[in-house]
Predict the 3D structure of the following.
Amino acid sequence: MHDVAIIGGGLAGLALSIELSRKGHDVVLIEKHRYPFHKVCGEYISKESEAYLKWLGADLEKLGAKRIHQFRLTHYLGSEVRSALPLGGIGISRFTLDATLAEEAKRGGVAVMDGTRVNGTKENALETTAGSIEAKLIIGAHGKRSNIDKTLNRPFIEAKAKGRDHFVGVKYHLKTDLPDDLIELHVFPDGYAGISAVEDGRYCLCYLTKAHHLEQNGAIQAMEKQVLGKNPALASYLDRFPSLYERPEAIAQINFQNKEKGRDNIFFAGDAAGLIAPLSGNGMSMALHSAHLLSKEIDLLLHQKQTKEATLNHYDAAWHKAFGHRFKSARFLQEVFFRPTAMNWLMKTANFFPPLKHRIIKQTHGEAFFEG
Ligand SMILES: Cc1cc2nc3c(=O)[nH]c(=O)nc-3n(C[C@H](O)[C@H](O)[C@H](O)COP(=O)(O)OP(=O)(O)OC[C@H]3O[C@@H](n4cnc5c(N)ncnc54)[C@H](O)[C@@H]3O)c2cc1C
């Protein structure tokens, strides 16, 4: 029997697996895709995670990540804001980052089972496409939405998604002539797109919009022309910059409701514990930080220094302390992004009053959480 079985090898699952195995625990990690693989994500990671990623074994400099210090925001109604990014961020593809951490996990003794899907959980076992796996504890690091949430009847899956909470996300890489230290956000009706550089001369274009636009237009390209194309900056990029993917990556049924942090024998980390609005550029850092918080508590539990109940209570409290405020700010800001008149007004005001710009940017980013 393993000490811990982790469902999902994204940033949260990989970070947890590395931390727990370095603490001497026997860990198995199950990921349904084979590394390396692409994933819907804007691939802009806030700087607060850099030291932690280095400790985990991903040296962003060596991986060719881009330093991002400038920000540009455009609105389809005509306003535009530019700003320096005081905290800064880093552009790195998930294709490279996740695979690097998976290699590091394997090197450290984690049993990484990629290409294996978890179909269900029992108290001390996972049912997978490679058979049953037993573990003392289970961690759900399976991302925003997974078959696991359904098998566990998690309330956010059951809750009927209200129209305004129902989103699709699309991502692909482009070749562009944009500066590589700049992240741009472009607001279009019912959505926004981010574009920024990653390694190897590539740029990541990723957007979030309401599901009904895809339903009405029938296909991604048609939706881009009809809906994203209403923002002139985006329209020109979609015309000029060739995609480097045969097909975009896409996910549906994204919602931003609150989620429980654990129950019975299972604890949740990363997006499985709560998904922040993507415009914050902060989900990856939150996934890593939540893994760091949970690994401390799981270590105490496995050493029988605290009960399961105390583990969950401590983790839940630490999670809310670290992210509660940021989570609400990002959700509020996202609501404003979806109100054209309010957003256009906010952008115009921010241009006349620069401290407002800096305050909004600061609200969504966190402080470094790892000192080695
Ligand atoms: C449109 C959009 C843009 C975003 N842009 C940014 C950005 O620019 N910057 C940023 O910081 N954050 C961004 N985010 C958020 C960020 O992508 C996530 O917060 C982050 O990936 C969470 O990591 P995770 O490890 O929790 O989940 P994931 O990275 O989603 O990993 C979960 C893993 O679990 C696996 N899995 C699921 N079910 C099973 C199963 N049954 N069996 C086995 N494996 C399973 C999946 O294959 C997946 O690899 C964005 C999100 C969206 C939707």
